[in-house]
């Protein structure tokens, strides 16, 4: 299982990376889940105007606590950043090829970060057995050729996944849009797999845990369950105004 965080607007990349580190080592764990430490690699993606695809990425197989200082992430000047800290569910799925963000190139290049375990989703792709559930989930929930995701279609796809997993919480990003999928299978821990949102005048954060270093707990709100949040990246440079759907 993993931890996710994204920020849009005018924020400090160093503070967001620090928040991800706090989640990765269990400092902010306030849930009933069995996993508090997430040592099996980490990755980040951000909006990058000088990249042909508009997105920069970084991946490292080492724990975030040990390797963040060797990455460019803390020094970034960007209006969109997402970080993933990993705890591999299966021991065999270790290494760079399993480290998020996962990327699928095409007419629209997508990047994907997942928190959860979906060992049955390969069936929705017609595969006889699972090789890596996060990759299979990526290919299923973001159909090839897609440029945007539709909430009702996405939720229908999620509900069509056979029982046996935990969560489909994910961040999916292309050069124009970012999405937060907040969905868990019935019976999964709403405490561990819940997500929270912090809105300020300068930025918005969505994270797997409440991070007191960013704001007191009473400033955070639960992200609606069974939801798809769309973030147009050409508007990520400013935070959402009241009633706006930039982070619906």
TrEMBL record:
- Isomerase found in the keyword field: no
Family matches, as InterPro entries: EgtC-like (IPR026869), Ntn_hydrolases_N (IPR029055)
The UniProt record lists the keyword Protease: no
Alphabetically list the UniProt keywords.
Glutamine amidotransferase
Name a Pfam family for this protein: GATase_4
SUPFAM superfamilies membership: N-terminal nucleophile aminohydrolases (Ntn hydrolases)
This one is known as: Glutamine amidotransferase type-2 domain-containing protein
């Amino acid at each position: 299982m993993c931890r996710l965080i994204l920020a849009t607007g005018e924020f400090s990349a160093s503070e967001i990376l620090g928040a991800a580190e706090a989640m990765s080592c269990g400092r902010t764990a306030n849930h009933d889940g069995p996993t508090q430490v997430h040592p099996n690699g980490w990755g980040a993606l951000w909006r990058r105007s000088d990249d042909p695809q508009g997105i920069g990425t970084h991946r490292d197989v080492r724990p975030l606590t040990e390797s963040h200082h060797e990455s460019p992430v803390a020094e970034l000047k960007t209006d969109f950043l997402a970080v993933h800290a990993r705890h591999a569910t299966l021991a065999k799925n270790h290494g760079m090829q399993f480290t998020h963000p996962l990327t699928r190139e095409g007419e629209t290049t997508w990047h994907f970060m997942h928190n959860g375990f979906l060992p049955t989703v390969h069936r929705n792709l017609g595969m006889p057995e699972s090789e890596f559930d996060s990759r299979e989930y990526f290919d299923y929930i973001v159909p090839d050729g897609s440029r945007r995701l539709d909430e009702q279609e996405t939720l229908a796809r999620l509900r069509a996944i056979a029982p046996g997993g935990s969560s489909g919480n994910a961040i999916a990003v292309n050069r124009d849009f970012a999405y937060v999928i907040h969905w868990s299978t019935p019976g999964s821990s709403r405490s561990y797999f819940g997500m929270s949102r912090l809105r300020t005048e300068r930025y918005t954060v969505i994270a797997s845990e409440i991070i007191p270093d960013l704001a007191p707990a009473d400033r955070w709100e639960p992200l609606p369950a069974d939801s798809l949040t769309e973030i147009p990246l050409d508007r990520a440079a400013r935070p959402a105004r009241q009633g706006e759907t930039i982070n619906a």
